Amino acid sequence: MIFDSLLGMFSVDMGIDLGTCNTLVCLKGEGIVLNEPSVVAVRRGTNQVLRGGTAVGQVAKEMLGRTPGSISAIRPLKGGVIADFDITEAMLGYFIRKVHKRSRLVRPRVVIAVPSGITAVEKRAVYNSAERAGARRVYLVEEPMAAGIGSGLPIGEATASMIVDIGGGTTEVAIMSLADIAVVESIRVAGDEMDASIISYMRRKFDLMIGWQTAEAIKIELGAAGDADTDGARVVRGRDVVGGLPRQCEVTGVQIREALEEPISAIVACVGRTLESAEPELAADLVENGIHLAGGCALLRGLSDVIAERTGLTVRVVDDPLSCVARGTSVYLDNLAAWKDTMESDADDF
Fold it and tell me: Is 252 a residue whose pLDDT tops 60?
């Protein structure tokens, strides 16, 4: 451990929020230095990344839904876990090299946030991908713990802190106390499921096929829950299901709220189940401490009000909810010596 710490003086150690939609990298003392879509463009039928291995992130995302038959734009993580091992390794390697810039001779130590509900096999896949991508040492931390730390919650104290982290692939709901997770539930219903619901609604209601990027844009502009303001509308372009030709139509905020009812209900139900599983003293703490929302979908209009109505607790959106998990991994980096016993740092741990 002493030798590893000495090596750390000569490497650029980093924390990574390996998300289904976006990957964020945080450096000690520098904050977020990379925020790119988790997308890779490859030659179809191979794992060969285009443009000399640089068609990763934003460059690759712009290709989604627009590639010719010889190219595939792939999101290698599904539901918060690795769906394509080789492509994930290529993506991680690109991001690590981009941040590390080969300015140091020693490979970096890496802290990676992973969903709390993933299996030992899935954890091993993350570990092996990061190691083969260039990490000297890999530490895995559960996303709700990283989100709580990155949000500044007092998770080390003898009081309950509750985080609801709604990302792209998973929703993580956890109650933490004394630097550990007391109750947690993870469901694979989050931003991607909301996008899928919008795509399904547009096809069912308007006979219009739209792509994932269009659905995401609609969610950001018009998405809402509960009684939130839904007066907006926008023109949506896609392909007619019946005729097969390009077409456009207008969709309203009221309609998109209807489209999102099912995934939002699933998230709210998950919050309720987690609270029902809490010990009485932890539940009592939450009456005062409330619930904190993190992740990109925490910004969905009206969601905090819906959860507050369901639970009777105060619900707050944390500062910069999109980056709190990555910030939490950075705090772990700053406290590796103190936290190493609570983190999985070897493939044999799982």
Answer: yes
Instruction: Express each pLDDT in 119-174 by its tens digit.
Output: 888 889 889 888 988 888 899 999 999 999 999 999 889 999 999 999 999 999 99
Output the six-digit token pair for 280: 């009485």
The tokens for 212 are 């994932």
Confidence of residue 346 (pLDDT cuts 50, 70, 90): low
185 strand-pairing partners:
173
Total domains in the chain come to 3
Residue that has been written with the tokens 């219009």 in this structure? 208
User: What is the number of residues in the chain?
Assistant: 350
Confidence of residue 270 (pLDDT cuts 50, 70, 90): very high
Shared domain for 233 and 302, answered yes or no, is: no
pTM to 2 decimal places? 0.89
Q: Are residues 13 and 136 in the same domain?
A: yes
Same domain, 163 and 310: yes
Residue 165, phi-psi category: left (phi > 0), alpha (psi -120 to 50), beta (remainder): beta
> Does 211 lie in the same domain as 337?
no
Q: Which two tokens stand for residue 255?
A: 């309609």
The verdict on residue 63 lying in a domain is no
Give the residue among 94, 95, 40 at the shortest CA–CA distance from 67. Answer: 40
94/207 same-domain check: no
Going by the DSSP 8-state scheme, the letter that residue 318 receives in this structure is P
| 8 A C-beta contact, residue 229 and residue 257 | no
Is the four-CA dihedral 223, 226, 232, 237 of positive or negative sign? Answer: positive
| 253: CATH | 3.90.640.10
Which domain, by its residues, includes 109? 2-38+75-146+324-349
The string of DSSP letters for 28-40 reads TTTEEEEEEES-E
Alpha carbon of residue 253 to chain centroid:
25
Question: CA–CA separation, 76 vs 93, rounded Å?
Answer: 13
In angstroms, rounded to a whole number, what is the distance separating the alpha carbons of residues 191 and 118? 18
Which stretch of 45-59, 255-269, 277-291 has the lowest confidence by average pLDDT? 45-59
Distance, CA of 11 to CA of 105 (rounded, Å): 7
